[in-house]
Amino acid sequence: MTKGKSTPLLSSTYPMPPYHYIDAKLFLALFTPTEESLQALLPAPLRPSQMPLAGIMIGEMPCKETGTFMEAGLLVQCVFDNPETKEEEVGVYFAYNYANTDVAITSGREIWGYPRKLADISLDWKKDTITGTVVRDETTILKATCTMEDEGEWMDSGPNINAKVIPSPSGEGYDLAVLTAAYLKYTVKDGRSGEVEFEVQSGPRDDLSPVVIEMPFIGMYFDTDILVPPAKKIADLKL
Hints:
The protein is mainly β. The chain has helices spanning 35-41, 102-112, and strands spanning 19-33, 47-48, 54-63, 67-81, 88-99, 116-118, 120-126, 129-136, 139-147, 150-151, 160-167, 174-182, 185-194, 196-200, 213-228, 232-236. The protein has one domain (19-236): Acetoacetate decarboxylase-like (Beta Barrel). It contains two helices and 16 strands. The strands form two sheets. Strands 1, 2, 3, 4, 5, 6, 10, 11, 12, 13, 15 and 16 form a twelve-stranded mixed β-sheet that branches. The protein has a four-stranded antiparallel β-sheet with strand order 7-8-9-14, with no helix packed on it. The two termini are 34 Å apart.
């Protein structure tokens, strides 16, 4: 760690990006949410995309810069206005995000704004069936199961969008409240897909009631390398 790059100054928790994930194992369980669910999950000025789509992501992330960690999230496809191009773009917003190491949690939150919390996260195979599970406070809050029967084709979902929010030390208002966009690069080595089943429930410290699944869509698994670059500010948040 380089001194003075992040808190604590004398022994920084994480290095600066870009981050390189080598041979990441990525399970995506996609579903169609209700219109009311989309509105509840997306903060303004983000808007639902023409095709309503959301999903659970659970992965093993071997990161060269921060060490291997497990990650999970609830992602929502969205539309935003790119302030540089002045054009509308499609992205994927992280409504919920979990990890199992302090380095992954702090770097994700402090650099990009990923809303990471600590959780027990697992990916388990039984023959051709994969199950991803996220447990907090002894409660299984996210679970997806898929039997991989077909080839899987990578879907370009646009940049990762996050709400980076830093409260003021006074306890009133915010020092920073913005939306960020990070354009990740994927080198997909293998993909599989199949029918998927879901379990989503709230825990003592996790309100997942805004997540309402109208219809399962597809489960996909990928072996991939991922380059995670620095992010760009795309909008201010009014909280």
